[in-house]
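Researcher: Next entry in the queue.
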Amino acid sequence: MTLGKFNAPTSGAWGTDNLVQMKDNGGNALAVSLSGVQTVRFNADSGDFDYLLFAPSAATPSKWITSVGVAGGTVTIKWIGGGTLQSTPSLTPTITWTDLGTGGTFNEPAGPTAKFYRAR
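Model: Structure for this entry, 120 residues:
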């Protein structure tokens, strides 16, 4: 049984991710009721696909990272819902978050080590 479709325009750069909402054949946003243990199958034709995100339909998270990309040696992070973008070099306790910006878009040079981000 087909539940819906994801149709996304090109992001313009390999590794630049966009969140795309599942829609029905009429172009209407779809909500899927999932409870207990469920199996979901996703068929991708091609492209730079990274993950599926399941979010509660009753409320959109107030602060949400919408895209992360690397181009020309620069990391660009975009988020919605206001708040402050924060980063940390490690997710092992004790985690120390550093405030980076509040404008909805943040750029910094790509580095050789891992970095973790959140909008808060």
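Model: The first strand starts at residue 64 and ends at 71.
Researcher: Noted, moving on.
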